[in-house]
Design brief:
FAD/NAD(P)-binding domain; eight-stranded mixed beta sheet; 7 helices; binds flavin-adenine dinucleotide
Length: about 300
């Protein structure tokens, strides 16, 4: 299924601007008004909706763990060594990093170090004496059952930021965490916050899809966004002063879809000394050093 991003009056200019960028790149995404959306999706309530951008083809969702396993399998065939240990120290000589210390007592020399530590990336950068504004931010995902099954339901994003999509015979939903007070993350906090479902998500879902008035939550889990507090966007490429320390961090909840491109870009940087197929310069650390935000609008 594709994505259906909905906007009310306030979000309409951003939705339109994003849609223009998408179609300029050849994406099969249509911008429809409330009437068109109501005709396309009979189960949808367009109350408070001005328009929606719907990906008709060439987009969708996939199983993150399966993707990871496919990459691992492909790497094994290319004689990559996997080491299961935690990096606890990074050695630095002047403007170069030279190796890492592991929690199993080993040390490894390194010509290049890539920080790909997800929500822990800020702490790993700090081991090299480098500042990176990336920290874990708790996110709840809820699973629910509903009597009605809508085979044509895309991943629907409400203007509130709450999303829902079918997953086999059930539905997944989330996106209710408030921006305000979303601080002091404890990286070991995996406690599900059920009130978010009861008080925020369910009423929103019931408004957007009236049949979801009667649903049954079954289970839930918590993950942590690899949250870039500067601009919720990726930091990719070398540190300007410590050039053999590379960042692949701060994806802030949209790293999975970017992962294959980021991996390719960084491998080109390492092998050829420059980006070839995809230029990630705009995501460079320079903006972090300058405190200059590079925002992606309409991310969840
Ligand atoms: C609830 C939720 C929903 C999401 N939904 C989406 C979505 O719809 N679309 C999307 O594109 N993205 C989504 N994301 C974001 C996406 O999962 C992340 O951006 C992505 O997984 C980041 O990949 P990564 O490889 O950079 O980091 P991770 O997958 O976090 O991997 C980091 C790895 O580094 C290891 N590590 C950390 N510290 C150390 C250390 N000191 N030494 C050694 N190893 C270390 C960790 O153990 C881990 O294996 C979601 C995230 C969450 C939490």
């Amino acid at each position: 299924g594709g994505y259906l991003i909905l906007a009310g009056e306030a979000g309409l200019p951003i939705l339109k601007a994003n849609h223009e960028a998408q179609i300029a790149e050849g994406a099969d995404i249509v911008l429809e008004d409330a009437g068109q959306l109501a005709r396309r999706f009979s189960w949808l309530s367009t109350e408070g909706i001005s328009a929606g951008a719907y990906g008709r083809g060439g987009e969708g969702w996939f199983d993150a763990h399966a993707l990871l396993m496919l990459f691992r399998k492909a790497l094994r065939e290319r004689r990559i060594d996997f080491i299961t240990a935690s990096v606890t120290g990074i050695a630095r000589e002047g403007s170069r990093v030279t190796g890492v210390a592991l929690d199993n007592g080993e040390t490894l020399e390194a010509g290049i170090i890539v920080n790909a530590a997800g929500p822990n990336a800020g702490k790993v950068a700090a081991l090299a004496g480098l500042a990176l504004p990336v920290e874990p931010r708790k996110r709840n995902v809820f699973v629910f059952e509903a009597r009605e099954k809508y085979a044509d339901m895309p991943l629907l994003v409400d203007p509130s930021g709450i999303y829902v999509r079918p997953e086999g015979s059930v539905y997944l939903t989330g996106g209710a965490e408030p921006e305000e007070g979303d601080h002091a993350p404890d990286p070991n906090d995996f406690e599900v916050e059920w009130p978010l479902f009861e008080d925020v998500i369910w009423p929103t879902l019931a408004t957007r899809v009236p049949a979801f008035e009667a649903i049954k939550p079954t289970r839930a889990w918590v993950g942590h966004y690899d949250y870039n507090t500067l601009d919720q966007n990726a930091v990719i490429g070398p540190h300007p002063e410590v050039e053999n320390f590379l960042f692949a961090n701060g994806f802030s909840g949209h790293g999975l879809q970017q992962a294959p491109a980021v991996g390719k870009a960084l491998s080109e940087l390492i092998v050829h000394g420059g980006y070839r197929t995809i230029d990630c310069t705009a995501f460079g650390y320079e903006r972090v050093a300058a405190g200059r935000a590079f925002r992606e609008l309409n991310v969840i």
